[in-house]
Amino acid sequence: MSNVVVVGLQWGDEAKGKVVDFLSQDAEYVVRFNGGNNAGHTVVVGNETYRFHAIPVGVLNPDAVALITDGVVLDLEVFASELTELKERGITADKIKISGNVHIIMPWHKRLDGLEEAYKKGNKVGTTGRGIGPCYADKASRIGLRIFDVIDPEILPVKLGEVLRLKNDIITKVYGGEPFDYDEVLAQYLVYGELLKPYVADTAAMLYDASADCRRVLFEAAQGALLDIDKGTYPFVTSSHSVSGGAACGTGVGPTAIDRVIGVVKAYTTRVGAGPMPTELFDEMGDVIRENGHEYGTTTGRPRRCGWFDAVCARYSCRINGCSAVAVCLLDVLDMPEIKICTAYDIDGTKTGLFPTKPETLAKAKPVYETLPGWNCDISGVRSWKDLPEKCRNYVRRLKELLGCDICMVSVGPRRDQSIVLDSEMLSL
Ligand code: GDP
Ligand code: IMO
Ligand code: MG
């Protein structure tokens, strides 16, 4: 009977989807609270692989109510097609509810995402191109369109007219692009409005009642803490709060209602998009990790940048998220004779264990490594802690020491059953 947040501790793609799926089998509510379809969460159940972008992973539990709450930005085209695909695959998805406060990713957001990136000379973020930044920018500028607007045929034409005038001016006069046609957009979004109506609900009130009734609620963060707009490696970040605190401001549940935070890390580090990454490997070892871990983006297919585990950034993440415990995923990928862990940074000749969020400083950080013997064998078939090779257990023990946080689970493969539980109480809702 608790409220548990699952959050990524690196630069995204830590296998949050897998951990959420594992936990959500017991959940009564599953909640997406930040980001949009820049997220790509892969879940493998038996022979079936599901890729979620806009809909909570926990929808795979037919008994759970799936909520999309205030902090999320929603692309209605993606939502509609994901919903259709799930239904075609026999997932009922009839318990989805969406907050009216959710901002909508409009067609100009996607267009502007590309135009803004192309316009920049330096500091390109390498966004997913899904319109995330421009949508959150409009939210902060108080000119965004929300679910409330799109389901109201009296309000939509007025608000759309106002915002489209501005957006078309920017697209044509600043970027020399083609304007959007008001009538076309209006007609399309009136249809979406009708589709959405049955899904709209006061999700904050639902969660308040759920908490008061001691229901089992699972909050699933998208992205990773180092991509958080405030706590990440700005400007190479996304535009939402991807730290655990986002589960409070992005839903309407007060921080005191959150009982536990489970952080998710990969047994190594990856990053997709631009920005400093101290442990990035440019040699063959980087390729080995990429191929072993199939490190290509779930959303964009881009090859992920790969490197050794960075304990400096993961320890920082544990702190800012207030992690209760950590799940270590993709451990099987490190099937090699020798493994390195970055335990500190050397910045201009000074050794530090503190993570600098100024990008210019982080770019100068040289990783200080310690080398551990690898287990050098396939562990994907192992199902218990005691059956893991001793060198593998030592690696996990060392991660625990460096993070200053308990490890509650290790994952040795993408499938649900390839999960080894170390602390079942921590993982029960
Ligand atoms: P998310 O964005 O954090 O949900 O992670 P992604 O789904 O983008 O990327 C994680 C990838 O690793 C997915 O393809 C998963 O199926 C896969 N995966 C999850 N856990 C494991 C694991 O323990 N071992 C291996 N080899 N793959 C895993
Ligand atoms: P999940 O939930 C990895 C990265 C992009 C880019 C930066 C900004 O699957 O872990 P955006 O499109 O958000 O404006 O891009 O953030 N990014 C992710 N990287 N996993 C994600 O989500 C990401 N979502 C955004 O690559 O560097
Ligand atoms: Mg992902």
Structure description:
- The protein has 429 residues and is an alpha/beta fold.
- The chain folds into 3 domains: 9-100 and 200-260, Adenylosuccinate Synthetase, subunit A, domain 1 (Adenylosuccinate Synthetase, Chain A, domain 1); 103-197, Adenylosuccinate Synthetase, subunit A, domain 2 (Orthogonal Bundle), CATH 1.10.300; 265-427, Alpha-Beta Complex (Adenylosuccinate Synthetase, Chain A, domain 3), CATH 3.90.170.10.
- 32% of the residues lie in helices and 20% in strands.
- It is built from 14 helices and 20 strands.
- It has helices spanning 16-24, 76-88, 107-119, 132-140, 147-150, 155-174, 182-196, 203-212, 246-249, 284-292, 311-321, 359-362, 390-403, 424-427; strands spanning 3-8, 29-32, 41-45, 48-52, 65-68, 73-74, 96-99, 103-104, 200-201, 217-220, 260-266, 269-271, 305-307, 309-310, 325-329, 338-347, 350-352, 366-373, 407-411, 419-421.
- Strand 16 and strand 17 (350-352) form a beta hairpin.
- The termini are close together.
- The structure holds guanosine-5'-diphosphate (GDP), 6-O-phosphoryl inosine monophosphate and magnesium ion.
